[in-house]
Amino acid sequence: SSFGTGGRDLRQSRKLQDVCYDIRGPVLQEAKRLEEEGRRIIKLNIGNPAPFGFEAPDEILVDIVRNLPTAQGYCDSQGLLSARTAIVNHYQEQQIESITVDDVWLGNGVSELITMSLQAMLDNGDEVLVPAPDYPLWTAATSLAGGVPVHYLCDERNGWLPDIEDIRARITPRSKAIVVINPNNPTGAVYPPGVLEQIADVAREYGLAVLSDEIYDKILYDGAVHTAFARVAPDLFVLTFNGLSKAYRVAGFRAGWMAVSGPKKHAASYLEGITILANMRLCANVPAQHAIQIALGGRQSIRELVLPGGRLHEQREAALTALDKIPGVSCVRPSGAMYVFPRLDPERYPIKDDQQFVLQLLREQHVLVVQGSGFNWPEPDHLRIVTLPRADDLTEAIGRIGSFLSDYDGG
Ligand code: PLP
């Protein structure tokens, strides 16, 4: 036929063969179907603050609106100078001196920059060390770029800190970079400087670039302190990723950045590659770039949310308390971010396929969570729960998970 694809199947490219991003995968489709049937689903699946009543600081919105008339055109492909200057200052305050405005790229969220940084770096078969569990875009973007994600373990029995010996054991002549997610999604672990230094030692020894995703750097509990990787390793080539989606609650604006620190002499070609990709997509969303200066320079309202009495703090408490009531469920207390990543004892709950498990939970209890394997965790024995809903909703939802588990026989 001369219509459509002429009778030939239009198939996805082979590039997508190993690309997987389950946070918005088949389970979410089923949730949408149930909602269309009129069911109310409690959604504990996506780290998107605004829909849960976490509003952006007013000054950000006001500034964007005020700047709209001058934000109609494309800007420089690296981003607005005002935003990049504010980002330089943000790192200077953390004693990271080597970052200049030429070292900062703005993107449509950190997501776009993660994809660009790997596309520019990897030849087919090049390896990237990625944590397990991870925020799965890192794994997916490595595969999409032709690379091979090699997962190193974070150790649940050690507060989910990266297992340095495991990292060493996985290095090969094809290793090019190591990804660090700190504070971590999904575990909430915040890495002490000593752990970052040990990772830096490995990167130094094997000449690896470090890709440090610090998007939760201001979402910290119980007095936890975040240390930027670039701070502990000024002598290493580090790309630091951050943005406005979480701490400033404007995930929908798509405002993120990437900052290069350390010696650039041997990375000139790579940085040219980044420039090519940045040029090809012209520029990031300009109105949202205006928000960066005011966000970084203004009142840090996130602090009130993470202190005792603040919503994020209280909701994390509610989630941990509710989990604690379920026999055979344990959870490392997260020091940062906005998730809990509980373990379901496999002796008690013999889950074979954790996607099937969360699908069944969704259908029976109308609670939507993401299975641990969606974060490249190798065993079917974890779930990720977002702690953004109100404490009552969290308690209700986790109570329902408890009811579901009390009848669970591995089916
Ligand atoms: N990195 C981590 C660790 C995340 O958890 C997320 C979003 O959940 C992102 C990056 C993506 O952020 P952005 O909205 O800036 O694209």
TrEMBL record:
<dbReference type="InterPro" id="IPR015421">
    <property type="entry name" value="PyrdxlP-dep_Trfase_major"/>
</dbReference>
<keyword id="KW-0808">Transferase</keyword>
<keyword id="KW-0032">Aminotransferase</keyword>
<dbReference type="InterPro" id="IPR004839">
    <property type="entry name" value="Aminotransferase_I/II_large"/>
</dbReference>
<keyword id="KW-0663">Pyridoxal phosphate</keyword>
<dbReference type="InterPro" id="IPR051926">
    <property type="entry name" value="Ala_Aminotransferase"/>
</dbReference>
<protein>
    <recommendedName>
        <fullName>alanine transaminase</fullName>
        <ecNumber>2.6.1.2</ecNumber>
    </recommendedName>
</protein>
<dbReference type="InterPro" id="IPR015424">
    <property type="entry name" value="PyrdxlP-dep_Trfase"/>
</dbReference>
<dbReference type="Pfam" id="PF00155">
    <property type="entry name" value="Aminotran_1_2"/>
</dbReference>
<feature type="domain" description="Aminotransferase class I/classII large">
    <location>
        <begin position="41"/>
        <end position="401"/>
    </location>
</feature>
<comment type="similarity">
    <text>Belongs to the class-I pyridoxal-phosphate-dependent aminotransferase family.</text>
</comment>
<dbReference type="GO" id="GO:0008483">
    <property type="term" value="F:transaminase activity"/>
</dbReference>
<dbReference type="InterPro" id="IPR015422">
    <property type="entry name" value="PyrdxlP-dep_Trfase_small"/>
</dbReference>
